[in-house]
Amino acid sequence: MRDIGLGAADDRVIALYARENGLCLVTRDKDFGDIRNYPPADYAGIVVFDLPDDTVVTGVLKILDTFLSQTEWLERLPGRLAIVEPARVRFRPS
Predict the structure, then answer these.
(1) pTM of the model
(2) C-alpha 66: how far from its chain's center?
(3) To pair with 67 at 20 to 30 A between CA atoms, which of 20, 23, 52, 59?
(4) In this predicted structure, what is the pLDDT of residue 26?
(5) Which residue range(s) make up the domain with 30?
(6) Residues 6 or more apart whose Cβ sits within 8 Å of residue 7
């Protein structure tokens, strides 16, 4: 978000930007996992990484790379929330 000037923006501003531009949200911010505030059907996809707090950047990038390499997961993503954990991925709504 820093690249587009939204590094310090409120979550709702970021969500609006993603929705209006057809972008998938990829974040560690668990607030985006609240489907009451961010209904997945309104987005190109929401990916929330639920990782231990001590996960370093290389660990996050490895998990992101694994997620992005799974064509089946990417095909299921539009209009859905994906919770990505170290050993599994859950999609909502199912």
Answers:
(1) 0.90
(2) 14
(3) 20
(4) 93
(5) 2-92
(6) 1
